[in-house]
Amino acid sequence: MIIDNLKDSASYINKKLNGEKYEYALVLGSGLGDLADEIENPVAIDYHAIPHFPVSTVPGHKGMLVAGTLEGKKVIAMQGRFHFYEGWSMDEVVYPIRVFKLLGLDKLILTNAAGCVNKEWKPGSLMLINDHIKIIAECPNRGANIDELGPRFFDMSEAYSKEGRAKVKQAAATLGIDLKEGVYMMFSGPNFETPAEVRFARIAGADAVGMSTVPEAIAASHMGMKCIGISCMTNMAAGILDQKLNHEEVLETGERVKKSFQSLVKETIRIW
Ligand code: HPA
User: Fold this and answer.
1) Ligand 1 pocket, 211 CB below 6 A?
2) pTM for the complete prediction?
3) 132 labelled catalytic
């Protein structure tokens, strides 16, 4: 039973953390991983050591939970998330989020790199996710419902916490960050979208396209966890500019705005 595995994982982590109570789960997307280095009194737990935890076989992949204090709050950060495009099932992608819930964490902060669909914005913009569109058929909650975590059918009308979003906006205002707000649309990847898919995304009401975050947000809604998501627009999505997309641009832009992205996440944690 998956719930038994989840409980095993949670109890292992709980022992490592001496039974201390944590509040925030932080999923660090591309380029944000080193925010984990700022966590004070860190306890690092290798994914390999956690019973039943998915483990990446990709060389150089960082797979670590880093627990400790950030801005005076108790956080557990995932350094390295599980992407659907890597071949993980949706259940595996959201496995850590479910473990966090069992550990008693009730606030989830998701970050990612995304392609910018909104033509008014520029690469380097940060976008607060206010809603999402899932275009792929798979859903982490397909299959037998785990009743202990949440109901079979569940509401998604506030997948991204209204209260949490207000805090991110307040944090951006404090820091003087020109925060955008919009809809994130998930494609499976690993290919970037075609120009036609990007036009489709825009017509559908999306401002950003990406390959993560949505499964985790769905699992969070199922379990009644408060969730927020912030995207770093690392590039204009395919077809908007007369140029090809490449991963280097994603990394370069990520690097360029890393500082303000990190401050935004930290200030949000401080005030939420
Ligand atoms: N598409 C999907 N995912 C992404 C992109 C993109 O253009 N940029 C960074 N992640």
Assistant:
1) yes
2) 0.96
3) no
